[in-house]
Amino acid sequence: GGIYTVIRTKAGVSVDELKDHYVLLGPYNEHCCRTELEYGEPSNEALQRTVQAMRSAGCKVVTGRWLIEGYPNVVLFDVGTSAHRLDEFKHELWEKVCAHRHTLSPRTHASRRTSNDAIIFGALVAWFLGEFRSQLANLGDDPASVPITAHFHEWLTGVGLILARCRRLPVSTVFTTHATLLGRYLCAGHVDFYNNLDKFNIDKEAGDRNIYHRYCIERAAVHCSHVFTTVSEITGLESQFLLKRVPDVITPNGLNVVKFAALHEFQNRHAMAKEKINRFIQGHFHGHYDFDMDKVLYFFIAGRYEYSNKGADVFIEALSRLNFYLKEINSAVTVVAFLIFPARTASFNVESFRGQAIVKGMRDTCKQIEQDIGNRMFELCL
């Protein structure tokens, strides 16, 4: 998803600055690890001891390097191996958070797999942070001389932050929300969201959407964190009204654009990529291909498959209006729009495959004729 992409793209610059002091914690997913992880033990002695202590206590911990830019250290926790301790984790959460601060709801105890996994993962992260700090002390490091910052993304990691603060771990905490949980649901419900931000009964709205327990985790994490950040001003505005805290810092997302050494290299890559798209379009619209490829504009929209939240409705409406204007002025420009959303499909489009095959055959035949005629012309010229 988008948050995974954000962390992935920022890992390179983070490692450049922090080197091996930058460690990513996450849930273990065997399928992803087969292609994205190089297994190995950490080089840091305190980290080694921490991982070993957790393994000795029965928790499966996988370590290695993430095969992305920067090659960062990762520590992954297998949530399933600690599932038998779920009630213990919930009890601590209830005793330390809910009973005294009235922040979380008893509905946290509901048997929902996503929420349960979030609680287990959060408890393992808090355990890891506490154990790591202890191992540093065992090695003679003064906590004041070795500061630790733990950065938590989204409500799914929030329990770890909450427990770390409740246990008074000497760890600085940062919480980032990329979009408020309740905001996502309200937007998907076709309400006039931004004009009514200050009018929502947030507890009722979360309860009506059956996400009150998740909302409470998010809100508690926001208020427990030392530093609270969001990724845009509009998300900061959401947080102010829905989570009741103004962000300390705005950290905008962006593209990590690689600048090519020479302009001609960028132009060559652009030309090659556009030629691939041109060929796809020629095959896809075979039988309806009556436009000039030199006068084609390509538009793209991509993201999670949420029709309103990701702006697909606005994109399609804009295309409709643009189409009207182009016809009105009898323009020779053709707009080809790509809507790229991961969604369930029945099967491949056989007609599209057929068109691609026919066009490829025609292209290969023309190339062969071109080569044959070229050879004959060359012989005659000689």
Automatic annotation (TrEMBL):
A GO CC annotation recorded here is: cytoplasm
Kindly give the SUPFAM superfamilies that the UniProt entry links to this protein: UDP-Glycosyltransferase/glycogen phosphorylase
- Per UniProt, what is one GO molecular function of this protein? alpha-1,4-glucan glucosyltransferase (UDP-glucose donor) activity
Pathway, per UniProt?
Answer: Glycan biosynthesis; glycogen biosynthesis
As its record notes, the protein acts as a catalyst of: [(1->4)-alpha-D-glucosyl](n) + UDP-alpha-D-glucose = [(1->4)-alpha-D-glucosyl](n+1) + UDP + H(+)
* EC number per UniProt: 2.4.1.11
What is the top EC class of this enzyme, as a single word?
Answer: transferase
Q: Which UniProt keyword terms apply here?
A: Glycogen biosynthesis, Glycosyltransferase, Transferase
| GO biological-process terms attached to the record | glycogen biosynthetic process
Q: Which family does it belong to?
A: Belongs to the glycosyltransferase 3 family.
Its job: Transfers the glycosyl residue from UDP-Glc to the non-reducing end of alpha-1,4-glucan.
Put simply, this protein is called: Glycogen [starch] synthase
